[in-house]
Amino acid sequence: GAGVSQSPSNKVTEKGKDVELRCDPISGHTALYWYRQSLGQGLEFLIYFQGNSAPDKSGLPSDRFSAERTGGSVSTLTIQRTQQEDSAVYLCASSLAIYEGPGELFFGEGSRLTVL
Amino acid sequence: TQLLEQSPQFLSIQEGENLTVYCNSSSVFSSLQWYRQEPGEGPVLLVTVVTGGEVKKLKRLTFQFGDARKDSSLHITAAQPGDTGLYLCAGGPSYNTDKLIFGTGTRLQVFP
């Protein structure tokens, strides 16, 4: 597709279960970002990738959160042993990253996670 | 940790009014972007400012980057209901990273 694709769009899980969220960026975009957004507030930075490497993973809230990117394309955000405070919309974005510093980010529609 | 604080957090106005949204930090940013987000969608870029003191105009929207590159403002003239949404500023911490930090957000509601 032409845009950033995220799946699932909605996920309801029970506390303690593991979840995987997938992001398919725009073809050719080298930078990929994960953010978390609660109740329509600002975006909380989680991690970003340049190619398959993650230069900055400082935003991951705990060691229950991990992310990987393979082939410079698809990325997966994994949350282990989910807690109710993990409930949020997880947004993925990609960018060409051809300038010094961040370029325009193109966002997916997000994955809404609800932990019961 | 670099933080971007936006004010006001919420704004409800009548069509035709003017408004200003502020984005402030104690840290210097290499660039500053403004996004608008509508319900159920991801944010969409409105503008990027990169030079201290820079002013950019996009129809009824005027964006300014502070001289010290620590703050920015968004001014909307004669607001319309179509301007309703969540406005987010976002800063690049340095030229050596593609990391982008988002502000706390300003939710704007424009009534007809």
Tell me what the structure shows.
The complex is a heterodimer of chains A (116) and B (112). Chain A has 116 residues and is mainly beta. Chain A has strands spanning 5-7, 10-13, 19-24, 31-37, 43-50, 53-56, 65-69, 75-79, 88-95, 106-107, 111-115. In chain A, strands 2, 4, 5, 6, 9, 10 and 11 form a seven-stranded mixed sheet that branches. The N and C termini of chain A lie far apart (33 Å). Chain B has strands spanning 5-7, 10-14, 19-24, 31-37, 44-49, 55-58, 61-65, 71-76, 85-92, 101-102, 106-111. Chain B is globular. Chain A binds chain B through residues 4, 31, 33, 35, 40-45, 48, 50, 55-56, 91, 93, 95, 97, 100-110, and chain B through 6, 30-31, 33, 35, 39-45, 48, 86, 88, 90, 92, 94-105, 107.
Please name the defining characteristics of this protein.
heterodimer, A: 116 residues, mainly beta, seven-stranded mixed beta sheet, 11 strands, 0% helix, B: 112 residues, six-stranded mixed beta sheet, five-stranded antiparallel beta sheet, 52% strand
Write the layout of secondary structure elements.
The complex is a heterodimer of chains A (116) and B (112).
Chain A: E1 5-7, E2 10-13, E3 19-24, E4 31-37, E5 43-50, E6 53-56, E7 65-69, E8 75-79, E9 88-95, E10 106-107, E11 111-115
Parallel strand pairs in A: 2-11
Antiparallel strand pairs in A: 1-3, 3-8, 4-5, 4-9, 5-6, 7-8, 9-10, 9-11
Chain B: E1 5-7, E2 10-14, E3 19-24, E4 31-37, E5 44-49, E6 55-58, E7 61-65, E8 71-76, E9 85-92, E10 101-102, E11 106-111
Parallel strand pairs in B: 2-11
Antiparallel strand pairs in B: 1-3, 3-8, 4-5, 4-9, 6-7, 7-8, 9-10, 9-11
